[in-house]
Amino acid sequence: MLKRLLLVTSFVCLVFNPLSALAQLPDFTELVEDTSAAVVKINTVQKARKNRSGQIAPDQIPEIFRDLFQQRQRPQTQRPVMAMGSGFVISEDGYIITNHHVIDGADEIVVRFSDRREFTATVVGKDRRSDLAVLKVEADNLPTLKLAAPDQLKVGEWVLAIGSPFGLDYSASVGIVSAIGRSIPTEKGENYVPFIQTDVAINPGNSGGPLFNLDGEVVGINSQIYSRSGGSIGLSFAIPTSVAVGVIEQLKENGEVQRGWLGVVIQDVDKDLAQSLDLDRPQGALINAVEPDSPADKGGIKPGDVIVRFNKQQIIESGDLPHVVGMLAPEKKAPVELYRKGKLKKLTVAVGRLDNGDSSVAGGSDGSDRLGLVVADLSDRERSSLGIRGGVILEQVSPDSAGSESGLNRGDVILQLGYSRIDDSDEYKQVVRELPVDTPILIRFYRQGRAISRTIILAK
Prior knowledge:
Low-confidence stretches: 5-12
Mean pLDDT: 85
Number of domains: 4
Strand order of the largest sheet: 7-6-1-4-5-9-8
Largest sheet: 7 strands, antiparallel
CATH class of the largest domain: Mainly Beta
Helix content: 10-25%
Structural class: alpha+beta
Oligomer: single chain
Strand content: 25-35%
CATH superfamily of the largest domain: Trypsin-like serine proteases
Shape: globular
Radius of gyration: 26 Å
CATH topology of the largest domain: Thrombin, subunit H
């Protein structure tokens, strides 16, 4: 009995020997040594500004009350806002990649290397939709990193991140790729990045830093985390090089990014919808609406169609469609495979150009506009009961949008935007399409029997 117990103990020790397991793990020391010099810490400063948010334009106030309002609405000075993030060098002459949200709104950007050299950076271009930005510093012979070939990453592969979490400069953390192609819509409902999900410890300050494979190549740019506490819980997301390469090229050449636009509102197909649409399984992007005269409309796509392949790429979930459409250059002709009334149909669609005001694919699935609003026309009976002649009613207000920040609520009736009276949804859409950015605009609306005037600011 004792002999048998000794044999079993020896076998267990052999199989579960921690030293044996450790011997199978990769050694990251050489990777960190070879790449750290090209990773940078980014410090930004947004200068103090006078806060005029929510003020009513003077010419909209009756003269008898104008002095009183101006006294109560004196601008208040805010303190400078400082923030930090990470980035990395991609060319010896000083081009640096980081996140859009790291440098957005910054008046000063300082880049610091591991050898303690510091440079003031200028913004070459930035793209909110992909959360990428290209900076430039005046320097030569800088250490650089190489971007990995797109679409080579696999789930389960080891990856390593370097950045400055919580200001702890040039910290390294490792993990594996948990998933590929994660759809995470922004607060505006836009969805252009098929994120890499990892369990690498990413924290505030890592944003914009590189995610490496074991060959020391950059496979992603760390962008965001999922956390209830603000710290890492093992759910981090990086922008893949398949997205970054094209965005970086356009930002360096043009300072902006042009994307394909289809002009549809979409949703996922669940089991019940698949059965009702005569599909053999839940798949694709269900078309809920098609914008008139849009590329989709001109290409023959109709409400009720289910797109299962676009530009030869499979569409498994609705979130896959914006990823594919957004990567296409405007005017690009793309083959489309879709199901209509249970039968497979093939079309060719020439995608349009996505402008700031376009919110349908490539875009959000909620159909909200530049202000983050979804509106509808009022019936004659509703107008009569409210005692108004025109206006549009708010059916939806997207969180963190310009409309939300102005205090608009579902059920409000918009009567005026700027100097334009709003009579119906067509007129509203035309006015919204022409609104300037970063400029306070009067918005007058009706709420619970009371007319209210505020300002709304459309951010870039």
